[in-house]
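Lay summary. Proteins are chains of building blocks that fold into shapes, and those shapes determine what they do. In this project we predict the shape from the chain. Here is one chain we studied, written as its sequence of building blocks.
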Amino acid sequence: MAENIRKENQKIPKPGNQYTALIPRFAFTAFLTVTLLAVSMMPVSASTIFEVAKNAMQTVYKDVAGIATVAAVVCAAVCLLLMNFSKSGRTVDESRSWLKRIVVCWAALMTLGAIVTYFESIIPQSMFGG
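And here is the predicted shape, written in a compact code that computers can read:
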């Protein structure tokens, strides 16, 4: 063991700047410092988990309601066209039943927003907080 220490002490340093070997360490330390500072910073307008969940659910509901409305209008238009231009009584009856189903499903999706808003006003947030 003593021989290893003597060999390391007897090593002749290479010519040039000795700090160039430390540049990768300094770069990594600087990168790590900047990254940790960016991760540990708190946003100025901190919001609770309830506000974040509310915004997410409203966004999802608006997207689903928009898609459902367009799909319901297109399907209802096809049903109405089949009802008006069909010569078969069976096709007219099936189109009428499908139109009823489309209207009921669309009304149920649109009612979900009212139900969530109603329960949101009933259940206090303090019930979930500490």
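What the prediction tells us: The chain has a mean pLDDT of 79.
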